[in-house]
Amino acid sequence: MDKMTPEQRHHCMSSIGSRNTRPEMIVRRWLWRHGFRYRVSVKSLPGTPDIVLRRQSTVIMVNGCFWHGHDCGKFRIPSTNTDFWRNKFERNQARDRRVYKQLHDLGYYVLVVWECQLAPARRQATLQALSARLAEIYLDTHQAKPRPYGDYEESLPAIAAET
Ligand SMILES: [Zn+2]
User: Fold this and answer.
1) Is a pLDDT exceeding 80 seen at residue 1?
2) CA proximity to 57, closest of 103, 113, 26
3) For the chain, which residues make up each domain, given as ranges?
């Protein structure tokens, strides 16, 4: 039985594309709930990254294992038109590497979250690792050093009076 209206079905079909996919939404909801703020599908950056966190200088790519050719159980080159598919996956992977390098050269950390890492049994651990890594990156990029205990004030360098 199919109870979807044509609009719902269209919405459902279009969400199968690369934008607003379910794995990406899992990551976005987690980040938002944990206080990370981000922009999505940023067209001004190479590869239109899924999620961009400016404060952490980080982009997060949520990759489907099939299209991005992840070396995991979920990815298998189809047994028909094998050459076509092999070519396609190689091109996809080459494009991914090019995009990651460009983002890196622009000063971004590039974190890849694979679809298979968001399977229910692994999801929690993956998302916690993601949060931990983002916190680490934030500290690295902001050079947060603990203030020495007891140092409440700093003196400015002596400035010679004008004569
Ligand atoms: Zn995978």
Assistant:
1) no
2) 103
3) 14-138
